[in-house]
Specification:
Elements lengths: L15 E3 L1 H14 L5 E8 L5 E8 L7 E5 L2 E5 L1 H7 L2 E8 L2 E7 L12 E2 L1
Parallel strand pairs: 1-6, 2-5
Antiparallel strand pairs: 2-3, 3-8, 4-5, 6-7
């Protein structure tokens, strides 16, 4: 007698996508740190002129309920509360004449402030 097995569907999209340019820059920064246990932690915190601000840092602690995705050997970790606010976002690294840095394209943002560091 065969048994019916229920398979939970996977999430349609990862919590965050990381571009090749961002992966390359992150890999470079992680190698400079010299600690193979580090992952990039992306978080959303209350604050800023629009209500929330992004936070990114290297972290060696991954909690049981964290969402973890990997791109090109770089782990990205997001806590559950932050995942709700950045679901479907893209992390990019831009290097140009006007400056260089990481940029987050978040489809959930309804408004941003003039400084570009906070959102609602």
């Amino acid at each position: 007698m065969s048994q019916i097995v229920s398979i939970k569907p996977s999430k349609a999209r990862p919590v965050v996508t990381v571009t090749d340019a961002a992966v390359n820059k992150l890999r470079e920064l992680l190698e400079a740190e010299g600690d193979p246990t580090l992952a990039l932690r992306m978080a959303v915190r209350p604050g800023g002129c629009s209500g929330f601000s992004y936070e990114m840092f290297f972290d060696s602690e991954i909690e049981e309920d964290d969402r973890v995705v990997e791109f090109g050997g770089v782990k990205v970790v997001v806590d559950p509360q932050s995942a709700e606010k950045i679901q479907g976002s893209t992390l990019d690294y831009r290097d140009g004449l006007m400056g260089a840095g990481f940029a987050i394209d978040n489809p959930n943002v309804t408004r941003t402030c003039g400084c570009g560091n906070s959102f609602a």
